[in-house]
Amino acid sequence: xxxxxxxxxxxxxxxxxxxxxxxxxxxxxxxxxxxxxxxxxxxxxxxxxxxxxxxxxxxxxxxxxxxxxxxxxxxxxxxxxxxxxxxxxxxxxxxxxxxxxxxxxxxxxxxxxxxxxxxxxxxxxxxxxxxxxxxxxxxxxxxxxxxxxxxxxxxxxxxxxxxxxxxxxxxxxxxxxxxxxxxxxxxxxxxxxxxxxxxxxxxxxxxxxxxxxxxxxxxxxxxxxxxxxxxxxxxxxxxxxxxxxxxxxxxxxxxxxxxxxxxxxxxxxxxxxxxxxxxxxxxxxxxxxxxxxxxxxxxxxxxxxxxxxxxxxxxxxxxxxxxxxxxxxxxxxxxxxxxx
Length: 340
Prior knowledge:
Helix content: 40-55%
């Protein structure tokens, strides 16, 4: 009995620890790449770039009036993971930017991080008497590693910029980050990690509302959560975002082989997304409707409203039925439709 109790306790601890999603460690390749990029290109401390890397933030309250803007990113159990604080001299002119990354579970040593990032400029103690290491990869920009007293790992990384107004991220950097985000989203979808796919799909649709595949993946995310109404809306949005085929534009392979091959690839991808959306709607017991079916359903609803309006007029007195006003009337209970 005692052994069974101990086994149950160990299993409960394992489940609790597995349920708590931990942020990446500072020596993870993705985190190291993000640190290097922000420390070498401080203009990338920008929401337009960071949204593709770590997702969308939660807007924080303004500090010091409207001059300092703060954004926060949270992980599982609402644990703070990232912070961005920026001061503007004028709207859109960022002269001070601080990006903080928190790693509360990290055991990565200063020595290992120094080996990854390069020789530090100096070692010191921050105002909280925590040991810190300062590095610099670009002018007016610093990268600082912080630990806690009695701890053996890097617990916080801060990238700071002070100087002239920062430019916007280059289109090449935005394109590269966007492509990597789409790749991560598709890889997570292949592994059915819908909790990872969902924020990435939301970011993709925020910037590309007509991305049919993102609508489909977001529908899968909602379906996995049991939010069937939103799942149906996303599946239908995915179908609406697929461009209609144009049979007149089809040419033979001998005439234009390159164009035909590209169009065939695009048509194949669109067809797969369409089939996936239709399959998702079928799983949720939603029947596909053609334009003729939708028009017929609209006419049936109009006729029902006219009939119900005529019934009310017969009860209240004889009046002329106005079809336009009848359509705006509130419907009676469905049970009255059987008295036709």
